[in-house]
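#lab-general

N.A. 3:47 PM
ok so I finally got the sequence cleaned up, no stray characters, all 43 residues accounted for. can someone with queue access submit it? mine expired

B.Y. 3:52 PM
send it over

N.A. 3:53 PM
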Amino acid sequence: VSSISGDPQAVLSAVAKQYMALSGAIAQMTLESIIAKYPGIKI
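B.Y. 4:20 PM
back already:
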């Protein structure tokens, strides 16, 4: 980050929400690859 424009609290909140969304997507992709590798495991 080189600069922040606008309300810093709103910007930080938006960044945190986006980070959490990306983290969830990464976790889901990781689990999907594990499930694909071991199809006998039931969830």
